[in-house]
Amino acid sequence: MTSGAILDAAEGVFAEQGLQGARMEDIAVRAGVAVGTLYNYFSDRQTLLAALQASREQQLFGLIDAALAAEGDPAFEALLTRTLRALLGHFDAHQAFFGMLVQGDSGPERAEVMCAVRRTVGELFARFDRLMARGVDAGVLRPADAPLYAAAVFGLLKGVALQEHITSAAAGVAERAETVARLFLDGARARCPSVTTSPVPTNPSPKDTP
Fold this sequence. Notes:
Elements: H1 2-21, H2 24-31, H3 35-41, H4 45-68, H5 76-93, H6 95-103, H7 110-137, H8 149-167, H9 173-188
């Protein structure tokens, strides 16, 4: 319980003060523990930050894995939308912290932070690659472009986030998930083969002539 409270407090302080500005004393105050207690759990700020990143990563993957472990055999469209909701819901809940990680200040902790971010992104892509493979197997997605589908989804997510930042009109998780799923599927959906018509005979037989 105390460890979780410290991580929650650290998230808020890091988001507000940045990687270099966050002080262990401020984190202890926000968590409602003595500084000595804080150091009993985490030896220094870098160790605390690494534990916080790992915790949020585990929470994210747990949500996505639960969304993918659907009971029965849902339609791919519903599975994609549910997975996007899990992803967007987690990022919404921790938006300030994740924004600080990606755009934060430089310093000795920066390299390790970005290594962890890249690892998280790589794991996300791996999960979405597996999801897209299910779409291909179901005949919903074209197989030829499958290697690009995860990147396409994340590109759409980034575009939606940028549009919301510019207009300051954030949509809800469900609305964004459904929009991204629809835009992606409109572009990646497998098409029915074109219907061919029988050619008109060039030399009609007598029975074909009026």
